[in-house]
Amino acid sequence: MASHAANLWVLLGLGLAGIFLMTKKLKKTIKADFGAFIQKLELLPPPQPAPPKAPHPLTGLNFAVSDVFDIEGYVTGFGHPDWLRTHEPSTRTSPVVLALVEGGATCIGKTVVDELAYSIHGENKHYSTPTNPAAPARIPGGSSSGAAVAVAADFVDFSLGIDTLGGIRVPAAFCGVIGFRPSYGVISNTGIIPVSSSLDTVGLFAKDPSTLRRVGLVLLQLPFSVQRNPKQILLADDCFELLKIPKDRISQVVTNSTEKHFGRQVLKHENLEKYFSSKVPSLKEFYSQKINGDPKISSLTLLANVAQILQRYEFKHTHGEWINSEKPVLDSAISAQINETLDMTDKEIEICKSVRTEMRLAVNNLLKDDGILVIPTTAYPPPKLGSKEIFSDDYQNRSFSLLSIASISGCCQVTLPLGYHDKCPVSVSFIARHGGDRFLLDTVQTVYSSLQEHADTVAKSKLSPNAVKQEHSAEAVKEKGNQAYKDKQWQKAIGFYTEAIKLSDNNATYYSNRAAAYLELGR
């Protein structure tokens, strides 16, 4: 376990040795804690209850918290030395942190966040950028950068952060760990510095699904319930088109794992752009009020705009007075966003709130109680340290189009690592309806090992791009055969299955489906 100090330092030594050559190229000194921690401390759990009572559920686990959570006796730094200088030590510990300590876990420190927890990049010039253990030459992602790094480097078993527009999901994707953004409002935000009150959600990082579920159930305070399997897993095809790596690298892994656990019949495909256009009418009203330009702007891009405007508006409403009085030195990109003139009328704020309400209803109706939506977590692999790429319109638009789905709807989302592509971590995200947190955690625990196996297989596969394309064509033809079979058009189904076999002759499903159609035709 990460709590065993001897093993920790051995792992740390190996990790440092493994990236020694990389540091020469980077000309950057790797700190002993990878720059993850801003302050070491220790909050110990209470004694174990006497038998026959069960031990505390989190016994033996240790964790860290992002520097937005209050801990009694310490100043909550919010990623900026000026904030630290102008605020008093907290008089109470955040209830979320207390619940974990009382549940048996040990808190060992506070971790670095982006300046004022505002960015999704993970770079902080005041405290230095935490080193991404999965890709040292790349950014770790933010805002909860240090918390993700602490888990990725095996310093802790799990860690807490805050997710506004990706503060958990992006660093989880970039550092190759599991990240969980729970449903909005199900975990108390008391004792946490807000970024955007209508978007902020306490989230957590873990290295494995068992720890994630174990901690998640304590945080969510959920009663026991029977585990349910998903009855539909929807791949958002248009979201996968946003990827800057081959989409098959992710979609094929999910498809193979789904077939193994739940059967091919649960796999469905969805175009979210079209779905949200029809189910979230306030997006059109928002467009007419605030957006000038391309009349063909997609609903996902509009969602991204709504999310960013809401974040900026609520952040300025909460912290504008402090910024104006203290005039903190901020990163130029963050300063530009925060200080940008943003005149929002009461009507426009109401439109944004309507978008939130309609989005939650739309996603809940799409997924119901037994559905999982599958999207890429991020469109880009983690950019290089100091890269200008993160400021490009394309990077911002693609990133926030994906991240805003859960942020605006308030639905729960888990980011899952899927190995590497071109030496960069790859991930996928599962989304369940608002309030479907336990169902989502159960599903993740069921499929996680299989996802890792299939990710490894796909990564090592030597299939040419043309062969991959043929496999997808075969799948498309097979789906036509399935539809013909349902319509009892046996001869037509046989024709489609035969065509699929010609495209991919090593898939047993195509042969068995054709055989079934022949049997029906014979009858």
Q: How is this structure best described in words?
A:
The chain is an alpha/beta fold. The chain folds into three domains: 37-273 and 359-384 and 394-461, Amidase signature (AS) domain (Amidase signature (AS) enzymes), CATH 3.90.1300; 274-358, no CATH class; 465-521, Serine Threonine Protein Phosphatase 5, Tetratricopeptide repeat (Alpha Horseshoe), CATH 1.25.40. The protein has 19 helices and eleven strands. It has helices at residues 5-18, 20-26, 81-85, 95-102, 145-152, 169-175, 209-220, 237-240, 248-262, 272-279, 282-290, 299-326, 332-339, 346-367, 393-409, 437-460, 465-486, 490-503, 508-522; strands at residues 37-43, 62-66, 106-111, 158-163, 178-181, 201-206, 232-236, 267-270, 371-375, 412-421, 424-432. It has an eleven-stranded mixed β-sheet, with helices on both faces. Helix 7 runs antiparallel to helix 16 (437-460). The radius of gyration is 24 Å and the shape is globular. It starts with a helix and ends with a helix. Mean pLDDT is 90; it is low at 1-27. TPR repeats lie at residues 474-507. The chain crosses the membrane at residues 6-23. It comes from Gossypium schwendimanii. InterPro entries: Amidase_dom (IPR023631), AS_sf (IPR036928), TPR-like_helical_dom_sf (IPR011990), TPR_rpt (IPR019734). This is Amidase domain-containing protein.
